Amino acid sequence: MNIDVQDESDSGSGQAVAFTLGEKEEVHVLHPQQIIAYQGPATGRADRFMDVKGIYRKRKLIRSDMSGPCHFVAALPPGYRVKILKLDGKSDLLYDFKHLFFYSKGVTMDTRVLSMKNVLVTRDIVKVKFTGNGIIGILTEGTVCEAELHPYNPLYVDAGSIIAYPENAKLELTVYGNHLASQHMSYHWKMTGHGPVLFQAGRQNRRFERDNNDDGIIKRFLREAVPFGGVFIK
């Protein structure tokens, strides 16, 4: 299998991802509406309803099973990128379903039910865990960063920027810093444990552009000076 990520960094368009599958190779695309070109046998694409326990039971999720030999191209909206990760059977990371773009044959997708506290913050009932050997494609907004957890020294990460974290991680919703800092920042996950955490920079980039381009100096001052102004002053 060959995957070619095409990106014209100077344009405002999103990425294009080209897949070339050989005989007996297969990839499952979780956003089939983004497939814009296909070359191969008509039987090489089979769409089906997903049966993923605990995920959006009231919605009908469709997955496209693409089998080789074939070649197809999927387009991503502006601002989104795809991060390709290789699994070796040892990963215990949990992902948001909304970040999943594709996964290859040999990879199994399971679910983990979240605690009620986490559900209220993330608005997701479950996380997704992959097992097996193969590759997965993750949708991100901007650059993907990685940090290693420590058993006792906590890592604070913006709650809305998290892509994946280890299943063993301990999470606590909080803010940090002095009084002023804790009042105008977004909620963060205080995380301890073992293993890597993946998070994206694009969400913060949009906030920075909003603060510096769309708002006047008075509104920006109020957002920073008023307790929790970043939450209530839009």
Automatic annotation (TrEMBL):
It holds the Pfam family AIM24. InterPro entries: AIM24, AIM24_sf, Trp_RNA-bd_attenuator-like_dom. Signal peptide: none annotated. Gene3D superfamilies: Mitochondrial biogenesis AIM24 (3.60.160.10). SUPFAM superfamilies: TRAP-like. This is Biogenesis AIM24. It comes from Paenibacillus pseudetheri.
